Structures are given as C-alpha cells and as structure tokens.
Amino acid sequence: MKKEFYLTTPLYYVNDEPHIGHAYTTILADVLTRYHRLFGEDVHFLTGTDEHGQKVADASRELGRSPQEHCDFTSKRYKEVWEKLDISYDDFIRTTEDRHKKVVFDIINNIYDKGDIYQKEYEGWYSVSEERFFTEKDLIDGKDPIGNRPVEKIKETNYFFKMSKYQDWLIEYYEKNHDAVLPEFRLNEVLGFLRQPLGDLCISRPKSRLKWGIPIPWDEDYVIYVWFDALINYYSATISPPEGTSPSWPCNYHLIGKDILTTHAVYWPIMLHAAGFELPKHILAHGWWLAKDDVKMSKTTGNVIKPLDLVEPYGADTFRYVLMREMVIGQDAAFSEKNFIRRVNSDLANDLGNLVNRLTKLLVQYFDGVVPDVPVDDENEIISLAGRTAVEVRKKIESLQMHSTIEEIMQFVRAINRYVTVAEPWKTAKTDLDTAGETLAVALEGIRIATVLLSPVMPSKTLELLRRINAPLNDNIVWQDTAWSDVLSGRTVIHGDAIFPRVTLPKTSEKIEKPAPEKKKPAKTPEDGIITYDQFKQVDLRTATILEAEAVPDTDKLLRLQVDIGSEKRQIVAGIAQHYSPEELIGRTIIVVANLQPAKIRGVKSQGMLLAVQDDKNLRLLTPDDEVKPGRRIS
Ligand code: MSP
C-alpha cells in the first residue's frame, strides 16, 4: 500500500475558544495538505481536541457542566470554526474517544512491561496551568518559569517514565537527523535542552486530586498525565481496526507552535522509541502571533484575536491569505488589522483583482468576451515565467517556505501586470486587433495559472475566479493545470464586480513608531565625534543576503527586505525604493547593522539597518567586492 503523506496539528485544549494562534497552525496544515494533494499525493490531515487534565476539569466546573459535556461543547466549537475557515481535515480526533483510549492503554502497558515505568514518592512544585511539576531551581521568583503562575508544593507517590535512559540516544538521533526538527535553530534549542541532565517524566496523577483522565490500566488510583495521553493521538488516530495497522505512520509533519517544542521533540520521540515505533519524519515549530506592540496575546490582557472577528468582515480566504503571507515560518509576527487591510488591498484588490477586472473588461469591449487564441509555443516572457513560477512554488512548498511561495506567485501576477501595461492592449485594439488579442489571451492564461497556484491558499475565491474566466473545471484541480495551455481559447469570460473588493483602512494611519529616545550618556571619548575602538566594536556589522524584497504598500520610498544574516532571518525596512527595484535586490549580499534596536517604520517592523552611500542623487548599497557568505562580521 502506498504510504500516505501524513500531517497533524496539535490537539487544542477544550478549556478555551479557538483564537488566531490555533487558526494559524490549522490553516498552515490545511494549505500544505491542499498543495500536496495538488502534487497528486495521497494526504492524510489530522486535527482534533485535547480533552483531559486539570485545565479542562477546572473550566467545566466553573461553567457548571460535566467535563464530558464541556468537551462535547467546545470540541464542536472548534469544528464549526474550522468549517468556516474551509479546513479540509481528513480526521478529527478527540482524546475522550474509545479508539484513542484503547491505543493509549496498549502503549502504556507496552512501556510498563518493558520496565521503563516505575513508582516513587516525589515532592515538587506543581503548576496547575502547566499541569506539571517543577523543581525548586526551575522556579522564577517563586512562580512557574513558563506561564509565571503560582505553584504549590505537593508530595505524592506517582508513576515515572524513564526518559533519562534515552537521553544519549535522542542526542545522537538529532545529531544524525538535522531536519527532524525545523527550522534548524529550533533543533539547536532542543539539543541545548538535551545536553542538560534530563529527569524522568511524571506520567500519573492520583485520582484523589484529578479524576478527569484516562486511568492507569494497572492501578485504579491514578489517571495518566494529560500530555502522555494526548501525544499518543498522532498514532492512535491512524490505527485502522480490526487489523490494528497504520497506513500513515510515521507522520511526515507534526506542525506545532514553538511553545510545545519540548513535549513534541523530547517526550514524544522517547515515548515512541520506548514503545518500539518509528519517529515522525519532521516536527515543524512555528513562531507566535503577537498582539500590537509585540506583546503576547492573553485572555487577561483582553488582546486575544478571534478568527471569526476577521472572517466575518473580510472573508475566510483573505484571512487565510494574510496569515500565510505575513508569517515567516519559525519567526514571530505581530498582528495588526491595519497591516491586514494593507495586504488585502495591495496584493488581492490591486495586483490580482484589478488585473482580472481590466482583462475581462477589455475582452468584453473588443472581443465580445471571447478569449482569442492563446499562443502555446511562442517565445514569450510570460510563458517562460509561468513555467518557472510553478517549479519554484513546488520547491518552496516542499521546503515549507509558505510566505515566499505566495510572494513567488504574486511576483508572477505583477509581471503580468507590467506586460499588459507595456503592451497597452486598450490602444493597440484600435489599430491592430490581433496583437491586442494575443496580449489579452497571454495575460489571462497567466492569471489562470497563478490562480491555480494560489488555490490551496484561497480555495473558494480562486474557484470563483476560475469560473469568472471560464476555465474548464474538472472534479479537482490537479498539478497539470499549472502547465501553460490554450484551454481558455474561444471561451467566454464574465466581466463582473470586483472579485477582491478593496477594504477600508481605519481613519488614523500609522506613523513611524520610533523607540523612545535614549537619555544622552556623558561622552567617554577624548574629543567630540571621535569614538574608541571598543565603541566601534559594539556595532555588529555583518554581511547579509537579500532573500526577498517588496514595496511597503502606500509608500514611495520604502522596501521591505527579508535578509539572511547567517544565524537567522531578519526583516529590514529600507528607504531605497527610488534607487532599486525589488527584483534587482534579491540574491545580493549587503552589509547590515545587526544589533540596532528594532523600530517600526510605517507600522512595519524593521530589525536592523543596511549600509548605503549617497552620491549626489544616486544612492548605492555597500557590498563586498567578492562572494562572501551571509553572517560574516565586518572587522
Ligand atoms: N493541548 C496542547 C497540545 C497537545 S498536542 C498533542 C496545547 N493546546 S493549546 O490549545 O494550548 O495550543 C496549541 C497550539 O496553538 C500551539 O502550540 C500553537 O500551535 C497554537 N498557538 C496558540 N497560541 C498561539 C499564538 N499566539 N500564535 C501562534 N500559535 C499559537 O498546547
């Protein structure tokens, strides 16, 4: 049997309503699923809810429901939101289901029989919010080091899983499998954690303290620790009864947020190994969506963004598009509605929507809406760019570069825009109808391909667009549909309302937000304007490679650059748009100040500054005079 391409989201706790963070991971999984389906793969996408443990027990008590009633209610809520976001999961597992509990019993019994679970009395600081013990030295200011919440001292007898026994094995495994945890800097974090002494994991809770859990099969006084139970879902959901085999295991991608890296990259592989199963191929940890001013979203601060608050006014597809376009996987991103609106207007309303509108209008005006013959073997820049774009999109999705996949497609859309602007079909139509017809046919075929390439990101809007241009639609869109063809020749398009209407900006526009000026320190230098060598050394100048460049919407001078500075990727906003086009910058090595305090320029975060020199009206970037890798210090 052909192995399925299997990917998962975390199982979301049912003590909380779905928020933008949950939506992001789930949309990312859905978009990856849809791309892999487009590539012709057999994909299995699992999501679900994590329903046991103290938090759920407490939340249900507060609401006066039984834990099971509460789980049924919130789990359904997740399903409703996923439906509104067009999430095409294949399976939704709930940890209170029998199919899950059965496999949890099998696995815990298996590990117990091998002698890797033992009982001992333990005293430690217990955090209800993290549902785990901390040692005295873990605590920060007497509070739990993760959530900064109160802890209580608890002494009790529990069952422990011998994680420490597998520490060296796991280090060796990660040293040999560099792509097991992605992005690679997260693997380094895991290795750093693993090089400290690794304690055994407390995997039980006495029923006297917590009843809401799966019982320890051999001891009725205990339930299983919620993480030990929940992680097993990734395996339990794939078991097909009655044979008990899994067509999907091992998993290709566990998609998670960076907050749950240790449980997934340390506990879970050790549990699987101890039980004799293969490890997942990759664990991908993405960053966090932060609220305004880069602060964490939390219920207490009241700054949590709920997906439906944005889906209702702007539509599910635009929400999916912006979330995928704005976050560089692995890094944090700040969410603001103003940036959301800017992105929708610049990419979807202007670049894509207007283009479709212009083309269908001209086709109706000069060709009764009928698409002239699409050339298929001409030497045309748009035809060759279409082929290159499809190849790049596939490569980028396979290496999980979601935001740059979208940018690749949008650069193609912008190239079609330029092609039409230069060819001026509205003028040539008056003197040379054949030439005008060819321009429109080429541009429309380009749009068809760009739309197919965007379909995993915006499944319903792209379908609407394909119907508008009357592209033949089979049961499913397939990868072959990204190839240049003349399928549109002779078909009649519809010219209608804007497919991506402009959305309005709130009245106040963002100003340059600079960090508060630092208090002037007394000069340590002997003369004004002279700095010491030590002072110069404090400036971290480094080489950086430009990975992406694009105009900052609604500005003339600003470009937003994504640069590789060796150790990490950074975003830099630079006032060079009047001297360089985004295309000519990509791939260049420049010099940046890497330790400059981040600032917001027109609402866009800038994490550094590039070096350039102004010569009369010309501005030129400083670059090394030969090839140099990114991240090299300038000395
Ligand atoms: N139940 C556990 C996971 C068990 S998996 C076997 C859990 N649940 S959770 O509901 O608290 O959140 C899970 C995930 O939501 C995070 O890992 C992350 O994927 C996502 N996010 C929650 N808040 C987030 C942001 N603010 N930003 C991005 N994603 C974050 O942990």
Topology:
Elements: E1 5-8, E2 12-13, H1 20-38, E3 43-50, H2 54-62, H3 67-84, E4 91-94, H4 98-113, E5 117-127, E6 132-134, E7 152-161, H5 167-176, E8 181-182, H6 184-194, E9 201-202, E10 204-206, E11 215-216, E12 219-224, H7 226-231, H8 233-236, E13 253-257, H9 261-275, E14 282-286, E15 289-290, H10 307-314, H11 316-326, E16 333-334, H12 337-367, H13 381-398, H14 402-423, H15 425-431, H16 433-454, H17 459-468, H18 533-537, E17 541-551, E18 559-564, E19 569-574, H19 582-585, E20 589-593, E21 599-601, E22 604-606, E23 609-610, E24 612-615, E25 618-621
5'-O-[(L-methionyl)-sulphamoyl]adenosine binds next to strand 2, helix 1, helix 7 and strand 13.
Quick tags:
25 strands, alpha/beta, Rossmann fold, seven-stranded parallel sheet, 635 residues, five-stranded antiparallel sheet, Isoleucyl-tRNA Synthetase, Domain 1, OB fold (Dihydrolipoamide Acetyltransferase, E2P), binds 5'-O-[(L-methionyl)-sulphamoyl]adenosine, globular, 19 helices
Describe this structure in words.
This protein has 635 residues and is an alpha/beta fold. The protein has three domains: 4-286, HUPs (Rossmann fold); 337-482, Isoleucyl-tRNA Synthetase, Domain 1 (Orthogonal Bundle); 531-621, OB fold (Dihydrolipoamide Acetyltransferase, E2P), CATH 2.40.50.140. The longest helix has 31 residues, at 337-367. The radius of gyration is 28 Å and the shape is globular. Strand 24 (612-615) and strand 25 form a beta hairpin. It has 19 helices and 25 strands. Helix 13 runs parallel beside helix 16 (433-454), helix 14 runs antiparallel to helix 16 (433-454) and helix 16 (433-454) runs antiparallel to helix 17 (459-468). Helices cover 39% and strands 18% of the residues. The strands form seven sheets. Strands 1, 2, 3, 4, 8, 13 and 14 form a seven-stranded parallel sheet that branches. 5'-O-[(L-methionyl)-sulphamoyl]adenosine (MSP) binds next to strand 2, helix 1, helix 7 and strand 13. 5'-O-[(L-methionyl)-sulphamoyl]adenosine is lined by residues 10-13, 21-22, 24-25, 50, 230-231, 233, 256-257, 259-260, 288-289, 297.
